[in-house]
Structure formats: structure tokens, C-alpha cells
């Protein structure tokens, strides 16, 4: 399996403050990579740097062998922690717009969107404004935007945050399907049962620095712990 | 190619988001509604007006040459104008040109057929300049109506008198001893003032709202992972520009329809100016267009920057009040700006970047700005735009992912 994500000696300073220091990891195709750490530990900043939203201070961050630029948007799906949609736009128009931003043709984006909305049971809401959809329906649209165009890398930053049980199940299905199709998945979460269920590999960072990294079984063996949660607690000394 | 497709997608999204809103069309209808209301009130009151002419003509030296022999000496005396017996039309025109007379009304011999008369005015007196053309023309109409009605003659005469409101005064103005285009010269460059205020008050705020809402909705991070900030800013700028163009086209069509309607109403309604008298001079039109475009770009960029700097549309909207006040200031102070171009206030308003565009537009229309001042004005606006673009870029980078706090001034200068 070849690496989709390659990060080497990455550091990030913002306004003179060190956010991430000398971080290295990689994610292979078809791999679910759990990116763990307490709030403010540097996870989201790392993802933003990987996607060139932030400019890294030092190091190499590659997606499919080169630094990410928006021209590669058709290969990436991103569901950020701070996520939302254009409330005054219609659901279908919103999905088509994001499809176009990802580099899809308008017609392709439209046919994908209609198919997806039908698949998740909200085809009848396609021409309704986002603001008139329920929270759960909006989450379905967000997820649809992230996975549209079969990306080679899917970045999910606390994806189940605020999701209802129905959408949580839908998300798990999406992750499993994407993994089978060879998509590399970076999965940021505080829910350790999701890590146990999905992750092939994990990285735990604290204050922007790598604390534990490797395959889930290897980490458990290395720390002599039964669960990732136990490892996390040991690293954070019982406090996060 | 892909980048252009993305830019086009942003432009379309920005444009459609605005024009699909009901409030967009409602806000656009406010101006025509106000215009129709004002026109209706004005028209109705003009039908009922009983002019107190002695008050109107007080302090004015207006003479009448009556080749039609229809004007009554008694009425002329009541109105307070002088019938110039024995004076030639050329002599009287020269008297107006020299400023010895404020105005001259000449009724032709065939008035009953042509229903038009000549008006000559002198614009040298700044206190009178503003209304002298309208006042003298109105006196011309009033004088004829009253004179024709005085004897209460045949039905033909009464009908003629009642149709006088639709007669045309052909106005000739003199300034500094030379024939001047008068109000006709102001209309075309003045149109840019109207266009500027229309797009400023109705369009530029969409740029701020667009950025703020993207932050409030939390859509910005997903967007920025797929396109470059520069593409997003350019797309927003062009999208709002299209919105502004839509508004201008709407108002142009409205103006055209209004003109056609007014032209066809017939009795009693006429445009304040004959369109064939409009003056199309290259320099005022060129600078009017430049000030309009540069002013629009400057303010739209500042609105984008403001939207990026604040965490919500509400906070950003509060800050933009400063822009509205500064742009409105030259409108409030238009009299001193027009009549005192060298005054300190006028000079400050002309060269201060945030008041420059409306002030330059006003002075350009009034014709009280030199070529050098015009060029300096353009230079100031161009430099201001460059600074605003730099500022917007910085604020966008610093503020677009700040969801709960605004960008501090120190951060702008500290960041690379």
C-alpha cells in the first residue's frame, strides 16, 4: 500500500507560539488513521497545514506525493470540526457548488448530488433551503459534500460531533465503504470506541508533539494496555 | 482552466445567493417607489399651485420681450417683471450676458401655434445660480397663463391657457459673459453620482455580508480547503459587481419606462430638460466613470476586509457605519463643496480616501475641479485600493478562521 499522506518533521508557529513541533506520520491508502489528542493539542492545526490553509513553519506535508494545493481538491474530502453550510441556499445548489469547488463539472456534481440525496432519504428536500432542513438532514448534506467525487483522502475532524444516531451509523458506513475503495482516512475524535472500531493506526499528540504512533495492536502491545483509551489516559496523566 | 471554472462557480454562487432573495428586489423597489411618490405629490401640487410670484421675483431683475402681444401689462406688473418696450432682443440678451439682467423671457410672435418661448438667464450670481433657470421658466409660464385668462376670452383662448403647462421653455444660460450649458451640462456627469450612491447603499454591503455569513455558517473552512483565498475574494468581488450591474440595469430600464410614460401622458407633464440639450463632454464623463468605478472597488474591498475581520455580520455591520457616514458626508455638505472648491473642508473631503470618491464625483459634475486635482484624485483612489486589497488579504488570512473574536490591529502589522 502506498502512502497517501506523508508528514515529516512538521512544525507550526502562530504569532510566535509553537503549536506543533517536529511531527511525523504517514497514512496509507485504505487505512483509517486515528489522530488523537486533547483539545488544543494541535490536531486541527496539523490538518489545516496539511490542506494548505495554514502555512507550515517547517517540514514536509505531502498528499499523493506533493504539497497540497486547491488544484488537488478533487482528491480530498474534508469535514472540518467547525463545519456548516450556506443556510440561504438550497440543499442541491449547495452540493453542486461544493462539487464545482472540488473541480467537478456542474452536470457531474448535480447527478452525484441527486443520487446521494436519494440514497440518504432526503431527495424530496433537494430544492429546500438549508435553513429549513433539520439538523440531521444538514449533517447528511455535509457528509455528502465531504465524500463526493470519491476522494483518495478523507479528513474527518470530529465527524460524529453533534450527529444523531442515524447519521452516526451512516457515517460509519461511509468510512467502511471508503476504506474498501482504497481511500485513506484521517479520523480525529475524542470517542475511543470509534477508534477501536475503525482505526488501523493511531497517533496521539500532546502540546503539539508526538507521544504515541503506530498500528493499534502495536501500540497496545507497546504500552501493555487493553484499549487506546488507556494509552491516552496514561499519556495525559489522567487529565486532558 | 479548473481555476477559472472554480472562479466562475464562486461568482455564480455569490450572484445567485443575492438575487434569489426577495429582500433584494424589495430593497430595489424602494427607490422607484419613492420616486413615483415624489413625482405624484409634485405633479398633484403643481396642478393646484397658486404661485406667489411677487415673492418669487423679489430681488430678481427679469425682463420680458413680448412679440406675441398676449402678455398683459397689469399681470406683468403684478408678477414684478418688466416688459421691455422698444428694446431689441439682441440688446436684452447682451444685458443678460453682462449680468445687468438676471433673466429674460422672449415670447415669439407665433406663440399660440408653437407654445414655446425663450428664456435667457445669467448664472454669475452664486446665490441665484441654483434656481434661476427654473424660476424664470416658471414665471414665463405663469405670466402667459394669467395674461390669457385675464380677459376670460373665447373658449379657444381658455383651452390654450390651460395647455400652457405643456409648453416648453427653451432656456439659454450665460456664465462669465459666455453662453453656458447650465443644468444640461451637469446631468451626464451627475448621473455617476446617482449611480455611485445607488450601488453604495444597495450593493457593497453584500460583500461584507457574504464573508461574514460564510464565517457564521462555518462554511468557510470547507471552502478554503478547495479553493485559494484569492479566488474566493475575486469571485466575491465580481459576484457583487454583477449584483450592482443588475441594479443599475434595473434602474436604467425603470428610467426608460418612466420617460416613455411621462412623454405619453401629454397635458401637464414634461421633463425638466430636453434630452437633446444634454451635454456629452469627454473629460467629465471619463473622470465621472473613473471615480465611480474606483470608488465602488475601494468600498467593496473595504467591506470584504471588514467581513473578514469580525466574527459576525452584526459586529462587522456596526463597524461599516463609519463608511456609510463618510460617504454620506459629501452629500450633506454638497452646497459648500460645489460653491467653495478651495475651502479647507472641500479640499480635505476631496483628498481623504474614504470621502474622495463621492466628493470628486460631486465636484466633477459641478465642473469646479481642475485637471490636476482630478488626476490627483484618481491617484489617491488607486493607491487606496492597493492598500485596501493588501489589508483585505491580510485580514482574510488572519480572520477567516477566527470564529469567536475579531482580528486585532496589532496582529495585522505583526503578521508576515
CATH-wise, what's the superfamily of the domain at 3-84 and 152-236 in chain A? P-loop containing nucleotide triphosphate hydrolases
**Rounded mean pLDDT score of chain B:** 82
Strand order of the largest sheet of chain B: 2-1-3-4-5-6
Overall 3D form of chain A? globular
Number of helices of chain B: 20
The portion of residues assigned to helices of chain B is 55-70%
The residue ranges of chain A in which pLDDT falls below 50 over 5 or more consecutive positions are: none
Biggest chain pair interface: A-B, 30 and 31 residues
Largest sheet of chain B: 6 strands, mixed
> pLDDT below 50 for ≥5 consecutive residues: which ranges of chain B?
none
Give helix and strand order of chain A, one letter per element, not per position: EEEHEEHHHEHEHEEHH
Topology pattern of chain B, helix = H, strand = E: HHHEHEHEHEHHHEEHHHHHHHHHHH
Query: Compute the gyration radius of chain A: what is it?
Result: 18 Å
Domain unit count of chain B: 2
Instruction: Give the oligomeric state of the chains in this entry, treating copies of one chain as homo and distinct chains as hetero.
Output: heterodimer
SS elements, strand count of chain B? 6
Q: Estimate the strand proportion of chain B.
A: 5-15%
**Strand content of the residues of chain A, in percent?**
25-35%
CATH topology of the domain at 3-84 and 152-236 in chain A: Rossmann fold
- CATH level 1 class label of the domain at 3-84 and 152-236 in chain A: Alpha Beta
**CA-CA gap between termini of chain A:** 34 Å
Amino acid at each position: 500500500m502506498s502512502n497517501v499522506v506523508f508528514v515529516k518533521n512538521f512544525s507550526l508557529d502562530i504569532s510566535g507560539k509553537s503549536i506543533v513541533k517536529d511531527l511525523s506520520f504517514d497514512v496509507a491508502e485504505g487505512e483509517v488513521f486515528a489522530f488523537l489528542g486533547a483539545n488544543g493539542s494541535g490536531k486541527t492545526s496539523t490538518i489545516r497545514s496539511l490542506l494548505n490553509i495554514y502555512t507550515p513553519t517547517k517540514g514536509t506535508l505531502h498528499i499523493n506525493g506533493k504539497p497540497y494545493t486547491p488544484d488537488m481538491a478533487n482528491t480530498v474530502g474534508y469535514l472540518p470540526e467547525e463545519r456548516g453550510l450556506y443556510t440561504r441556499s438550497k440543499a442541491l445548489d449547495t452540493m453542486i457548488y461544493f462539487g464545482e469547488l472540488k473541480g467537478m463539472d456542474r452536470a457531474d456534481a448535480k447527478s452525484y448530488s441527486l443520487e446521494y440525496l436519494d440514497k440518504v432519504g432526503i431527495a424530496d428536500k433537494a430544492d429546500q433551503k438549508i435553513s429549513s432542513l433539520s439538523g440531521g438532514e444538514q449533517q447528511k448534506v455535509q457528509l455528502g459534500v465531504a465524500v463526493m467525487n470519491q476522494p483518495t483522502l478523507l479528513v474527518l475532524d470530529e465527524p460524529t460531533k453533534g450527529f444523531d444516531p442515524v447519521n452516526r451509523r451512516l457515517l460509519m458506513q461511509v468510512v467502511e465503504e471508503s476504506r474498501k475503495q482504497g481511500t485513506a482516512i484521517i479520523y480525529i475524535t475524542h470517542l475511543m470506541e470509534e477508534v477501536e472500531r475503525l482505526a488501523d493506526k493511531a497517533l496521539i499528540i500532546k502540546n503539539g508533539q508526538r507521544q504515541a504512533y503506530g498500528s493499534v495492536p502495536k501500540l497496545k502491545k507497546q504500552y501493555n494496555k487493553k484499549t487506546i483509551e488507556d494509552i491516552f489516559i496514561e499519556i495525559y496523566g489522567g487529565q486532558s | 482552466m479548473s481555476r477559472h471554472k472554480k472562479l466562475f462557480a464562486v461568482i455564480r454562487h455569490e450572484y445567485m445567493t443575492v438575487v434569489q432573495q426577495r429582500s433584494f428586489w424589495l430593497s430595489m423597489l424602494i427607490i422607484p417607489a419613492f420616486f413615483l411618490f415624489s413625482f405624484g405629490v409634485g405633479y398633484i401640487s403643481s396642478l393646484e399651485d397658486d404661485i406667489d410670484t411677487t415673492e418669487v421675483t423679489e430681488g430678481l431683475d427679469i425682463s420680458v420681450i413680448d412679440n406675441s402681444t398676449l402678455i398683459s401689462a397689469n399681470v406683468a406688473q403684478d408678477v414684478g417683471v418688466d416688459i421691455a418696450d422698444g428694446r431689441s432682443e439682441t440688446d436684452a440678451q447682451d444685458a443678460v450676458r453682462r449680468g445687468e439682467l438676471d433673466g429674460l423671457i422672449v415670447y415669439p410672435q407665433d406663440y399660440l401655434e408653437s407654445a414655446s418661448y425663450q428664456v435667457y438667464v445669467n448664472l454669475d450670481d452664486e446665490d441665484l445660480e441654483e434656481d434661476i433657470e427654473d424660476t424664470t421658466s416658471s414665471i414665463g409660464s405663469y405670466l402667459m397663463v394669467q395674461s390669457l385668462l385675464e380677459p376670460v376670452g373665447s373658449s379657444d383662448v381658455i383651452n390654450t391657457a390651460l395647455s400652457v403647462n405643456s409648453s416648453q421653455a427653451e432656456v439659454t444660460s450665460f456664465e462669465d459673459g459666455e453662453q453656458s450649458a447650465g443644468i444640461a451640462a451637469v446631468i451626464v456627469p451627475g448621473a455617476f453620482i446617482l449611480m455611485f450612491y445607488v450601488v453604495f447603499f444597495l450593493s457593497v454591503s453584500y460583500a461584507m455580508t457574504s464573508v461574514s455569513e460564510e464565517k457564521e455558517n462555518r462554511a468557510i473552512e470547507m471552502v478554503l480547503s478547495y479553493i485559494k483565498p484569492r479566488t474566493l475574494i475575486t469571485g466575491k468581488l465580481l459576484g457583487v459587481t454583477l449584483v450592482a450591474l443588475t441594479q443599475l440595469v434595473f434602474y436604467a430600464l425603470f428610467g426608460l419606462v418612466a420617460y416613455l410614460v411621462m412623454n405619453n401622458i401629454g397635458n401637464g407633464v414634461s421633463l425638466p430638460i430636453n434630452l437633446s440639450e444634454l451635454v456629452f463632454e469627454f473629460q467629465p464623463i471619463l473622470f465621472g466613470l473613473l471615480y465611480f468605478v474606483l470608488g465602488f472597488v475601494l468600498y467593496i474591498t473595504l467591506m470584504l476586509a471588514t467581513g473578514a475581520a469580525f466574527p459576525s455580520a452584526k459586529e462587522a455591520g456596526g463597524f461599516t457605519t463609519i463608511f456609510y457616514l463618510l460617504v454620506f458626508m459629501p452629500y450633506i455638505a454638497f452646497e459648500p463643496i460645489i460653491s467653495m472648491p478651495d475651502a479647507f473642508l472641500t479640499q480635505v473631503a476631496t483628498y481623504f480616501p474614504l470621502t474622495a470618491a463621492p466628493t470628486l464625483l460631486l465636484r466633477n459634475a459641478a465642473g469646479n475641479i481642475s485637471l490636476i486635482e482630478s488626476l490627483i484624485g484618481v491617484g489617491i483612489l488607486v493607491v487606496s485600493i492597493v492598500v485596501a486589497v493588501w489589508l483585505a488579504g491580510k485580514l482574510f488570512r488572519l480572520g477567516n478562521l477566527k470564529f469567536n473574536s475579531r482580528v486585532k490591529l496589532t496582529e495585522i502589522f505583526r503578521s508576515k
